[in-house]
Each structure stands twice: as C-alpha cells, then as structure tokens.
Known about the structure:
The chain is an alpha+beta fold and 219 residues long. It has 7 helices and 8 strands, in the order H-H-H-H-H-H-E-E-E-E-E-H-E-E-E.
Amino acid sequence: MTQQELDRRIGMPNIDQEWAQFEKEVIGTEKRKQVPFWRIGTRKAAAIAGIIFCISVASIATAIIMPSSTAKLAAILIPQDNDEPIHTLVEEVPSYPGGIEALQKHITQNLKRPQEVQTYQVEGRVIVQFVVEKDGRCTNFKVLKDVDTHRKPIKRNIQATGAPQERNYITMSEFEAARKVCRDEALRVCCTMPRWTAGKIKGQAVRSQFTLPIVFKID
C-alpha cells in the first residue's frame, strides 16, 4: 500500500494539494487585491494551522480505528508500551488462551501453505518472535529464521530451463521466493492470534518476549 493510498484510507489530508489550493484561492486573490503582506501572512498561518490540526486528528484516529482487513498494518499501528522493559525471563510465561494445544489448532486451521513450498520443494520452520503486552496483545512481530530445507539442489547464477516441477534443481531466486512467501504467511497467521495471558513476575503482568515456530511441510 502506497503512502497516498494509506492517507486516503485514514482520511489524511494531502498537504501538497491543500497548499496549492490555498495559493490559488487565498494568496492569488490577495495579490490581485494588493492586500498588505501582513494580512497574507496571517491567512497563511491560519491555513497551515488548519492542515496541522487535520493531520493530528487523523493520526489519533489511525491509532484507534485500525483496518481489520490488513493484519500487518494492524500489527504496526497497535499502541506500544515503549516506556516499560521487555522481559525475556519471567516467572510465569505468557500463554495462549486454551494452552499449547489450542495454539497448535489455531495455527493448523489458519495457516495456508504457499504453492511455492510444493513447487520448489522447500520446507522447514519460520521462527517468529513477538511481544506479549501486559493486557495480552501480541505486538512487535519479527522473523528470526526462515525455512532452510530444500529437497532439490540449488544452482546459482544460471538461467532456469523448463518448469520447476520437472527440473531436478531450483534456482537461488526460486528458493528466496519460497522463503519470502513462507515468512509472510507465518507473520499473517501470528497477527490473527487473539489476546494471550500475559507473563508475570511476582504476580504482576509484564511485557514479555515469546518465540513461536511455524512449520511448513511438503506433501
């Protein structure tokens, strides 16, 4: 999604268009009327203040009203408790509602195996790390490790011949393409998780780090 598309979605004003309109309707008119410069400066300041106010309101709305259809965007816009530390060791580890079996079921039901896994014969685990906030929200998703197993040898810097399914090798670009789609799918699934039970230290909920493997297999 481009910046302009994001701006339109959240109602962010286009500053360039706003300023061009201001110059046409206000500054141009004032020049024709030969109004003293200080009056133009006052109106310019008012227009700029209005634009800044619109941007501030739109920014606040962005943090509150998040597009539910864009999981990655939601993960980025979720408010962060950045003033508190993230714990890697806690007395009570964060937990998915219903436990490990429920988490495995959620991943199994929601994970969509990319076609590239079968086509390029690539499989393995994507290791995703995230933060479980004190209120159970999962934020700060990032990939620590991509899939790394390939059943066909990789040939670098060559022009591929024929369909991947018919070759006894894959190219480096095909391997990287398979890794990318697996990485993106692992992040997407993690972003669909409901709130967890936060980790605790001395009975108090804290921000804590959690690492989750997402497995991709070939039939």
